[in-house]
Amino acid sequence: MAKSTPSATRDVLVRTVPIELCQLIKFAGAAESGGAAKQMVADGEVTVNGAPEARKRRQLVAGDKVTVGGQTLVVKLG
Asked: In this structure, which CATH number among 3.10.50.40, 3.40.50.300, 3.40.800.20, 3.10.290.10 belongs to the domain 8-77?
């Protein structure tokens, strides 16, 4: 498993918004599969804009910040 720098921030370019939380986690490579992404959310390992998030299908828009696995993913429309 690759080590990540605590609170490293990375932009994730998506084609359309909104995008579901678990889809973003998988797309960004923070989880190996959609099932793993769902488990991370269920286990309370994910925050959105600084608040814990338990909704796997939470709709994210450009500018939202998702923190998971020691990194912060910023949704960018690209």
From this structure: 3.10.290.10
